[in-house]
Amino acid sequence: MLRWGLVAVTAVLLVVTVLMFIDRFSDDPAPAVPLAAKPETAPDAPPASPPSDVTVPAAAAPLRTEPEPVAPVRAAETVAPAPATTPAPAQTTPSSPTEEPRQTVAQFADRPATPKPVVREQQPKLELARQSARPGSFSLGSPVDCTLGKDCFIQQYMDVDPGPAAQDFMCGHLSYQSHSGTDFRAPNLRAMQEGIPVIAARDGVVRALRDGMADVNVKTLPEGAVDGRECGNAVVLTHEDGWETQYCHLQNGSVSVGKGQIVRAGDRLGLIGMSGKAQFPHLHLSVRKDGQKVDPFRGVDPQVACGGDYRPLWDSVSGQQVTYQAGGILDLGMIDRQLTKEEAESGNSSVTTLDRNGQALVAWYIVFGIRQGDVMSISITDPDGNRVFTQTLNPHPKDQAQYFAFGGRRTPPGGFQPGAYRAEVQMIRDGALHDRREMIVTLR
Fold it and tell me: Domain count of the chain?
């Protein structure tokens, strides 16, 4: 009996050891969750990581890239309007005991709200890098030919936190676990299709490239459809002293250079796209020195993880352009009906003229980098300066990579008064105006 007891104990210890070994060396990616849930259900999912930009080497792929772990996606919040039973500008949905509180639900007002003073235009706070690169050292120009904060935005930065959390170089939340680059995004698909040039950030030689992959949201593809090609259509440039820059997710058919070609800083490489492992149109820029990833906002060998006295790689000109925007309003539009997040992201759900006898008058907006406690407000003003709709949501319950909402008023009997209507969206942070955008549409 003693002998069989020893054999049983030995077998159990052997199984435990094997399981520990498998768990230690397993690197299967975490399952991804959708970028946004359907607005009909308006779920309040717990925060997760935003879309990852992963470049994994594959024998069959001509573009040699560097592996990155895959992170799940932080779902965007969706707020849908509901018919109003009172003229109040907002309505709060009670939370379930087992769920986080849901966001305020937009509604259609039955009559105009009391007019409020208009806040002057204020752009989001843009913070310059603390110092420019040393004269004569390796430096980079902007990799995109667009105006940051206006027709393109940096949505994600490199993760500088060495632990399980994620932080950008300013100690902010515009990153996710193990993100190894900088994401320059287009505001919507229409802007992507119209073309935002991706340009060489420095003189170099084309080491590798890929083209021919479609611009589609990876969540609509079968699982594993882009394995080994997560970077999508791309260009890799080599520079002096072991430096490399890599440009991912370029638009299908837009790559305009050839392998071995010498390029100069500012030369066009392609266009911002949504190829590979991407869920929104953007350029993912990676920078490497001797094969090691480098955050261009911190430079080589930073002394602290975040918020330090850095030596960024941006040159003196780009240092004034490639600035830090801690979240803001991506897009704003007006339409004559309710709409989905996908319709808003298309860029085709905003016009300059509408039928005054349509279903409704609705203003919608998309923001990025919204923080817990931020307050969003929306209003529509008629040609006489009266508010026909106004709403201020409750303080936002959590940090999110992206957030979509809309609200408005149903068309009254006889239609709206003809003329110019102004929609305004404000983002309030810590009691101060953080960002503001407006647009005008003519009702006929």
Answer: 2
